[in-house]
Amino acid sequence: MNELRSGDPAMVREARIAGLCYFLVIGGGVFAALFVREALFVPGDAAATARSIAGNESLWRWGIAVHGVYLFFGAAFGVILYRLFRPVHPTIALLALIFAVVPVAIEALLLTALYVPLAMSGEGTSLDALDEGQRQALGYLAVRVFLTGWGFSLLLFSGFCTLMGVLILRSRLIPRVIGALMLAAGISYFLNSLAGILSPPFQEALLPGILLPPFIGETALALWLAIKGVNVRIR
Prior knowledge:
78% helix
């Protein structure tokens, strides 16, 4: 098993890079989800959603672009954290890596759905066979497909948060309180995504409080990594 030495400059540098990547993911996620999709998508109203997106096309495109870019950083911090925690428990670290990168792949594929509302209003005469209401409904459905798929990706990502919490608790690389916060983040993501599948009204009742533990836990981990890195010995 590899040995991680206290004060190892390469180890600390990698941890800080992972923390910065995590911050970019958190910031990009907040922007794309809250300031773009949440602001422009009108639940239950295809026409209003179409008008909102058409009237703020540049913002919608920025939301897609930012989401696409932060996925690169999401894959990067998953790989770096795997390298850092592999000496703690190789199998758990590998599973955490899988639960980090598979959602990245899912979301990358789903992003194409967010382009559909733009295509419905910008393809000229090629969509003349569809009336305006049908185009609006297709655009709305595409966004709903993205949101549903994003819920599935967060269900998988809950595994990453949970396993990362376990790895932190098993090691002394990072304060154990952060491990506990990551466990809470994983449980919250899991319950939120499961509620979205089984009972969307119940999920609506849980929001936004159910997502507070993930925000606290992930932000705490990103802060610690970016500022302190890791600085203990593991054999």
